[in-house]
C-alpha cells in the first residue's frame, strides 16, 4: 500500500489501461504465472527492484514485458516512472485514450477449487456501481476519513478502502502496512472516523489496550471472512461504535450485502441485506427457495462481472439462465430478509480474507520429490477463521518432517500459503470409486488420533 500504487492504478485506468495488481509477497513462479496469464504489457515495480533482480523483475523479463520503477520523487513532488526495459513495447507509440464505461479497468484472479485460478475482468461500470453502493450503504461524504489497512491488491482494500472514499470526496490514511501498536495513534492523529477490515485485524486490535483518548468512530465495517457474534459484541463494547458486517467477492467488484447503519437494524451472525444488488436464495434449478430454507446465495446487479476471461466452462456453470450469478456459498434469509451464510459450497480456504486455492497448493506439494500424494483443506483457526491443513502420503521408504516440508513450501509460495498443520498418513482416504474428496480427507485427518502432526 503506497501513494505510488494509488497514483499508478488511477493513471492506468484513466488512460484506458487495464490494471492487474499482484501480491508483492509472491515468489518468481507465481509472478510468472500471472504475468503470462494476463499477457502483461508492463510491470511496475518499486524503486531498486531492477538493480536487486527482484522476483517480479525476473518474471517480467522471461515474457519480455516492459519494466518500470514507480516511486515518489521528492525533488519534483510527484510520482516518477523510470522505464528500465521497454520489452515488447519498444518502438510502439500509442496515444492516450479516454476510458469508456464498459472498458475493463481491473482484472484480478480468483482462486479455483478444481481448476487454475480464474481471471475476473471488472469494467469501469462495475467499479463505479460498487463505489456508489458503498457510498449509499454507509452514507459516505467528504467529511469522512478512513484508515486503509487492507491490501490494495484485493477488492476489499481497493474498492472500499480507496475508490469509494475517493468517489465521495473523502480521504484515507495509508500506512505502508498494518501495525496494531500504531493503528489507533494514526487513527486519532489524522482524525479518521471509520475503517474496514477482516475479522483477523479486529481481533488483533482487541488484544491490544484500548486507545486513549477513545476515538470518535462513526462505524466499523467487517468483511471478507465471517465475523463471530462474540467478536462483534466485543468490538461494539470496546469502541462504542456500530459494527456492520458485509459480504463481498471479487466477481461482484467487492460488496454485495451489508448490515445497515443505525437506526436500522444490524444483526450479529448475518451479513445484512442486498446493497444495490438483488439477492436470492436459489436451488440447483435456479428456483427461489422459501424464506428460512437453505440454498445457494445468488446475485444480480450492475457491479457483477459479465463473465470470466477465456473460460466458457466456468461461465456456463456460474450463471443461472435468469442471469443470477452463483456465489458458491450456501445460505438463507431470516424473517427480515437478512442473509445468513451457512457454509461454503466451494472448497476455497479462507485464511483471514486471503482466498487460497487448495488445488494450487496440492500442485506445489506434489512437486516435492519425497511426496506421493497431497491434499490441502481448511482447518478451523481462532485467529484467521480458517488455516491450511495438508494430508501427505510419502513415497515408499522416504522420510520428511513437517518443518522440512513447511520450509520447502515457503521457498515456492507466498508465506500465507504455508500449511499450519501437516498430517502424514500411509493411505489417503478415497471414495468407493477412488476419488479424493477434500471434505472426507479433512474430516478423517482431523478426527484421527494417530495422525502425525
UniProtKB/TrEMBL annotation:
SUPFAM superfamilies: Acetyl-CoA synthetase-like. It comes from Fusarium pseudocircinatum. Pfam families: AMP-binding, AMP-binding_C. One of its GO terms (molecular function) is ATP binding. CDD domains: FACL_fum10p_like (cd05926). Keywords: ATP-binding, Ligase, Nucleotide-binding. One of its GO terms (biological process) is fatty acid metabolic process. Signal peptide: none annotated. Residues 1-309 form the AMP-dependent synthetase/ligase domain. Belongs to the ATP-dependent AMP-binding enzyme family. This is Fatty acid transporter FAT2. The keyword DNA-binding does not apply. InterPro entries: AMP-bd_C, AMP-bd_C_sf, AMP-binding_CS, AMP-dep_synth/lig_dom, ANL_N_sf, Pcs60-like. Residues 360-435 form the AMP-binding enzyme C-terminal domain.
Amino acid at each position: 500500500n503506497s501513494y505510488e500504487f494509488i497514483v499508478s492504478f488511477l493513471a492506468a485506468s484513466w488512460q484506458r489501461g487495464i490494471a492487474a495488481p499482484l501480491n508483492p509477497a509472491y515468489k518468481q513462479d507465481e509472478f510468472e504465472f500471472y504475468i503470462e496469464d494476463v499477457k502483461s504489457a508492463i510491470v511496475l515495480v518499486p524503486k531498486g527492484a531492477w538493480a536487486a533482480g527482484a522476483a517480479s523483475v525476473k518474471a517480467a523479463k522471461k515474457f519480455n514485458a516492459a519494466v518500470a520503477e514507480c516511486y515518489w520523487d521528492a525533488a519534483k513532488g510527484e510520482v516518477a516512472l523510470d522505464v528500465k526495459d521497454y520489452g515488447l513495447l519498444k518502438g510502439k507509440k500509442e496515444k492516450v485514450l479516454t476510458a469508456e464505461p464498459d472498458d475493463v479497468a481491473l482484472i484480478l484472479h480468483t482462486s479455483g477449487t478444481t481448476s487454475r485460478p480464474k481471471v475476473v475482468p471488472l469494467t469501469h461500470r462495475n467499479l463505479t456501481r460498487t463505489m456508489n453502493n458503498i457510498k449509499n450503504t454507509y452514507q459516505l461524504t467528504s467529511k469522512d476519513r478512513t484508515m486503509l489497512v487492507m491490501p490494495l491488491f484485493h477488492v476489499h482494500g481497493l474498492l472500499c478502502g480507496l475508490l469509494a472514499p475517493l468517489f465521495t470526496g473523502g480521504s484515507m490514511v495509508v500506512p505502508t502496512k498494518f501495525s496494531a501498536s500504531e493503528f489507533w495513534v494514526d487513527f486519532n492523529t489524522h482524525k479518521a472516523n471509520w475503517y474496514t477490515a477482516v475479522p483477523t485485524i479486529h481481533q488483533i486490535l482487541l488484544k491490544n489496550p484500548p486507545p486513549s483518548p477513545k476515538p470518535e468512530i462513526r462505524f466499523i465495517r467487517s468483511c471478507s471472512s465471517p465475523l463471530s457474534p462474540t467478536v462483534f459484541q466485543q468490538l461494539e463494547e470496546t469502541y462504542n461504535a456500530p459494527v456492520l458486517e458485509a459480504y463481498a467477492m471479487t466477481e461482484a467488484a467487492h460488496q454485495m450485502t451489508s448490515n445497515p447503519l443505525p437506526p436500522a437494524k444490524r444483526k450479529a451472525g448475518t451479513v445484512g441485506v442486498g446493497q444495490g444488488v438483488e439477492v436470492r436464495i436459489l436451488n440447483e434449478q435456479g428456483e427461489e427457495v422459501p424464506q428460512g430454507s437453505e440454498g445457494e446465495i445468488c446475485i444480480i446487479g450492475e457491479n457483477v462481472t459479465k463473465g470470466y476471461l477465456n473460460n466458457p466452462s466456468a461461465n456456463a456453470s456460474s450463471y443461472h439462465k435468469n442471469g443470477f450469478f452463483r456465489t458458491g456459498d450456501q445460505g438463507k434469509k431470516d424473517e427480515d430478509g437478512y442473509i445468513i451464510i451457512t457454509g461454503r459450497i466451494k472448497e476455497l480456504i479462507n485464511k483471514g480474507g486471503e482466498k487460497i486455492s487448495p488445488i494450487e497448493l496440492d500442485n506445489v506439494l506434489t512437486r516435492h520429490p519425497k511426496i506421493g500424494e497431497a491434499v490441502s483443506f481448511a482447518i478451523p483457526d481462532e485467529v484467521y477463521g480458517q488455516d491450511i491443513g495438508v494430508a501427505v502420503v510419502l513415497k515408499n521408504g522416504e522420510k520428511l518432517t513437517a518443518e522440512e516440508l513447511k520450509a520447502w513450501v515457503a521457498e515456492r509460495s507466498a508465506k500465507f500459503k504455508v500449511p499450519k498443520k501437516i498430517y502424514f498418513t500411509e493411505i489417503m482416504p478415497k471414495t468407493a470409486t477412488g476419488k479424493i474428496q477434500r471434505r472426507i480427507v479433512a474430516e478423517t485427518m482431523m478426527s484421527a488420533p494417530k495422525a502425525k502432526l
